[in-house]
């Protein structure tokens, strides 16, 4: 029975030593966690996912803006082509009417005659 008491005392002493080491390790771990928290959330820190989220949001905003600019460019290009087409048609019709007037063809003189 004495041997059991001695073994129990030895094991209790070993457990106490390991408990003190465990407490010391936990304190060190808490200190490291606190320091890491200060570095990541403090001014100028890396702040976890915050910068990544802001960067992704900025990229998304730029993509939306680029898409809007592309649409605007396409609309302006279409408008310009329509105006060129209309201007070209107007020039052709003015040229043909000038030719007809110079040749004296199809000139309606009635609106120019006055009733006396």
Short summary of the structure?
With 116 residues, the chain is mostly helical. The chain contains two helices and no strands.
Structure description:
The protein is mainly α and 116 residues long. Among the domains are: 10-48, no CATH class; 49-88. It contains two helices and no strands. It has helices spanning 2-41, 50-103. The longest helix has 54 residues, at 50-103. The relative contact order is 0.03. The model has no long low-confidence stretch (mean pLDDT 80).
Main beta sheet: none
SS class: mainly alpha
Order of helices and strands: HH
Runs with pLDDT <50, length 5+? none
Features:
116 residues; mainly alpha; 2 helices; rod-shaped
Give the helices and strands, then pairings.
Blueprint: H1 2-41, H2 50-103
